[in-house]
């Protein structure tokens, strides 16, 4: 890609006099560029304001013809989806130029339903694929049957919310260049959870799926860049215990298939995080973090996206198991690359909180022992002062109700009673007095 197609609206408006598009199509372009963003593209194709660049950009915009749209192949692999697939197909709104459906062994009447649909709709092509415990092989087979300029992969339960705008955006993007290293993410809305996942590629031979499960695109041209398209796909949470168990088996097989690709280990640890033991996690990850397993210094750490994420999982598990020295070792390994990530900051300050809580618990225990040894009432300050410190420690040690009772009694006995609480703590304890 020579020119970043994500243009600034201000620049477009400023150069509108040079853009040979109708007012309607110009407004449409302004709307479409708001649908797409990409940190990768910003990194690899920095903004340029030189005259040649501006001329090339305007030439591309002038070539956009929404009356001659890019063709899109909607591609499915399905099994026993008779009751869900129709709604997904309806969401395409008749705008997919072809629909490729690969059945992997349905027994519920899905095949018969699809055979009837394909007879009445020339855009639907139906194929069969013998299941071999590998989602990537099935998806690659399905993609090989696609003839459109673009391929969008669907699951049978997924409904796209605005296929029309998506098709117009892809028409706009195709004018600028080919995208042999870009995968386009869509928003997956599943119940109350929304996340992005790679759904769209240009139909080029360089792309293929990898992974028996949780499959993802790779390109023989180089590392994948991602662009986000702000269009939603509505999905369903259809997770079952049987599916989780099956996916785990496939993930372990994928780890054996590709032992050097940390993505699969990360997904396995993520999916089984609550049940896997810390010792198991360390055993599985033992040789992944360093380029030389005999040299485990920070300088020898293999920095990449999934390595960092696996270490973040290890840090959390180390905290759960009280392995603070392990936590600090992992923290040191990724501090330079993860210092501004939400997960890293969360874990860093969780450790600080745990240390504060440990110190408070130790101090409270020491205080209670000291109080038990008091032998005289010959004190300068009222015993209420001592009780106020005890009540504060109880609050900080996780006993707010007992602390609140003590403080209310203390302040009830003497409204001018001095204390060393912050204003927010005082409001919390006495606000409903």
TrEMBL record:
Q: Does the keyword Transferase apply?
A: yes
Its keywords, alphabetically, are: Transferase
Recorded GO MF terms: transferase activity
Q: Which Gene3D superfamilies match?
A: Spore Coat Polysaccharide Biosynthesis Protein SpsA, Chain A (3.90.550.10)
Q: Does the keyword Transferase apply?
A: yes
Q: Which InterPro entries match?
A: Glyco_trans_2-like (IPR001173), Nucleotide-diphossugar_trans (IPR029044)
One Pfam family assigned to this protein is Glycos_transf_2
Q: Which residues form the Glycosyltransferase 2-like domain?
A: 73-172
Q: Which domain of life is it from?
A: Bacteria
State the name under which the record lists this protein.
Glycosyltransferase group 2 family protein
In its UniProt entry, the species of origin is given as Streptococcus troglodytae
């Amino acid at each position: 890609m020579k020119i970043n197609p994500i243009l600034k609206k201000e620049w477009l408006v400023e150069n509108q006099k040079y853009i040979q598009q109708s007012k309607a199509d110009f407004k449409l372009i302004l709307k479409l560029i708001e649908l797409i963003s990409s940190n990768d593209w910003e990194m690899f194709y920095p903004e340029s304001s030189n005259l040649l660049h501006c001329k090339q950009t305007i030439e591309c915009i002038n070539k956009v013809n929404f009356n001659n749209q890019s063709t899109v192949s909607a591609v499915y692999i399905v099994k026993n989806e008779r009751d869900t697939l129709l709604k997904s197909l309806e969401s395409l709104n008749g705008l997919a130029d072809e629909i490729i459906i690969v059945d992997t062994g349905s027994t519920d009447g899905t095949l018969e339903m699809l055979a009837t649909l394909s007879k009445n709709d020339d855009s639907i092509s139906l194929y069969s694929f013998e299941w071999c415990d590998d989602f990537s092989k099935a998806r690659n087979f399905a993609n090989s049957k696609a003839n459109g300029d673009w391929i969008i992969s669907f699951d049978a339960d997924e409904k796209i919310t605005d296929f029309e705008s998506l098709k117009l955006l892809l028409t706009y993007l195709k004018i600028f260049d080919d995208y042999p290293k870009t995968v386009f993410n869509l928003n997956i809305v599943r119940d109350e959870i929304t996340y992005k996942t790679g759904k769209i590629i240009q139909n080029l031979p360089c792309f293929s799926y990898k992974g028996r499960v949780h499959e993802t695109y790779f390109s023989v041209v180089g590392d994948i860049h991602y662009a986000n398209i702000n269009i939603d796909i509505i999905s369903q949470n259809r997770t079952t215990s049987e599916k989780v168990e099956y996916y785990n088996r496939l993930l372990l097989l994928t780890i054996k298939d590709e032992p050097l690709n940390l993505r699969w280990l990360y997904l396995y640890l993520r999916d089984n995080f609550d049940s896997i033991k810390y010792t198991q996690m360390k055993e599985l990850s033992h040789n992944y973090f360093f380029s030389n397993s005999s040299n485990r210094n920070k300088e020898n750490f293999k920095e990449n996206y999934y390595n960092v994420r696996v270490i973040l999982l290890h840090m959390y598990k180390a905290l759960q198991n009280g392995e603070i020295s392990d936590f600090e070792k992992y923290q040191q390994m990724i501090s330079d690359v993860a210092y501004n990530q939400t997960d890293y900051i969360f874990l860093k300050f969780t450790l600080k909180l745990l240390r504060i809580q440990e110190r408070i618990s130790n101090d409270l225990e020491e205080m209670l022992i000291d109080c038990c040894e008091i032998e005289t009432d010959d004190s300068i300050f009222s015993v209420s002062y001592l009780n106020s410190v005890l009540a504060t420690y109880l609050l900080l040690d996780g006993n707010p109700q007992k602390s609140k009772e003590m403080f209310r009694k203390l302040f009830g006995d003497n409204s001018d009673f001095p204390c060393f609480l912050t204003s927010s703590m005082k409001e919390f304890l006495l606000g409903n007095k």
